[in-house]
Design brief:
Elements lengths: L1 H13 L5 H12 L4 H10 L3 H38 L16 H15 L3 E2 L5 E2 L1 H4 L19 E2 L2 E3 L4 H10 L4 E10 L11 E11 L4 H16 L5 E8 L2 E10 L5 H6 L5 E10 L1 H6 L8 E8 H9 L12 H4 L8
Parallel strand pairs: 1-5
Antiparallel strand pairs: 2-4, 3-4, 5-6, 6-10, 7-8, 8-9, 9-10
The structure holds 3,4-dihydroxyphenylalanine.
């Protein structure tokens, strides 16, 4: 037995371990459950008593010797391989991906900027609204069709706001004129989804209430906006319209043209694209917010951001804006607005 111990030790001394695989082989051969050391220990139990002392010592020495080799190997190979995994020198530098703003956010920010330059402050309101702010205070009659189940998502007594006009009410309830505000946000409608309309979209609401505000002020403000946003010389037209919360009411179209297939589709062949609704704030709306309609007048407007975004960036299907497709989004990299 002593001889076997000596042989194993000599053999182990000659082994040169150079990798974690070789280290594992070493462990399996000598120090695992079925390894040589355990094999010797099993034989040791059957030795006659007087031999046990000497053999036992030799066996312990051998085991300690082998364990030291294993430990040193662990320190050398396992640790350095772990480190190597953490730092991969072959990776390209600047591996951080820079994101991009969503086109809707780009357009929203640009719109806010334009009106901010005209002295409009920015305000926001909740997307889950009560009937008062979304409808009643805005002078919708009890039986107005817009309250119909088809247009509105109801959640118990509350609604998902169908327009950002609700924020006008919240702001007028809080403050007396002069008020000059721009109010962006997401709105919801229970509508059939198609390439031109979605069940949620984005609006930006404008409100200006003060003494002596007129329809001429409204037009001047919107002309300025169109030239700034769509470019100088962009043609505009106003059409008479109806909204319960404005009197008189109008809609504004811009000339997008009929020269491309996309523009024809977007404008239903007319070349004119409706971009917003507007008007003079109805006296009932002012009264509902405790603002004296004898003293103050105001104008308001509301426009869809999604349509304008489609026009500006050449989208032909509104749903493409919300696919979260990184290939679409990454095209807007580097536009800082
Ligand atoms: N709230 C209207 C809509 O969602 C848009 C609108 C029209 C807003 C006229 C206004 C306005 O502020 O004066 O269709």
């Amino acid at each position: 037995m002593l001889e076997s111990i000596r042989n194993i030790r000599e053999e182990a001394e000659r082994i040169k371990i150079q990798s974690s695989e070789e280290l594992e082989k070493f462990r399996l051969k000598y120090l695992s459950k079925k390894g040589l050391v355990n094999h010797l220990i099993a034989g040791f139990r059957d030795l006659p008593g007087e031999k046990k002392k000497e053999v036992g010592k030799a066996l312990n020495d051998l085991k300690a010797f082998l364990e030291r080799i294993l430990e040193e190997g662990n320190a050398l190979y396992l640790q350095s391989e772990d480190e190597a995994k953490k730092v991969d020198d072959s990776l390209p530098v600047n591996a951080y991906r820079v994101g991009s703003r969503h086109p809707i956010s780009l357009v929203k920010n640009e719109l806010c900027d334009i009106f901010y330059r005209l002295g409009f402050d920015i305000a926001e309101g909740p997307e889950v609204e009560d009937d008062w702010h979304n409808f009643s205070a805005l002078n919708f009659a009890e039986d107005h069709p817009a309250r119909d189940m088809q247009d509105t998502f109801f959640t118990g007594d509350l609604v998902l706001r169908t327009h950002t006009s609700s924020v006008q009410i919240r702001e007028m309830e809080k403050k007396q004129p002069p008020l000059r505000l721009i109010m962006p946000g997401r709105v919801y409608r229970n509508e059939a989804i198609s390439s031109r309309s979605n069940c949620f979209f984005h609006q930006i609401e404008g409100l200006y209430v003060d003494e002596g505000v007129t329809f001429a002020d409204l037009k001047q403000t919107l002309y300025y906006f169109v030239q700034e946003f769509f470019g100088e010389g962009t043609k505009v037209r106003f059409r008479a319209s109806y909204f319960p919360f404005t009197e008189p009411s109008a809609e504004m179209d811009i000339w997008a043209g009929t020269d491309t297939e996309d523009n024809r589709r977007l404008t239903k062949g007319t070349g004119w694209l409706e971009v917003l609704g507007c008007g003079m704030v109805h006296p009932n709306v002012l009264k509902n917010c405790d603002i004296d309609p004898e003293k103050y007048t105001g104008f308001a407007f509301g426009m869809g951001i999604d349509r304008i975004t489609m026009l500006k960036y050449g989208f032909t299907d509104i749903r493409d804006l919300f696919l979260n497709d990184i290939r679409m989004l990454s095209q807007f990299k580097g536009i800082q607005k």
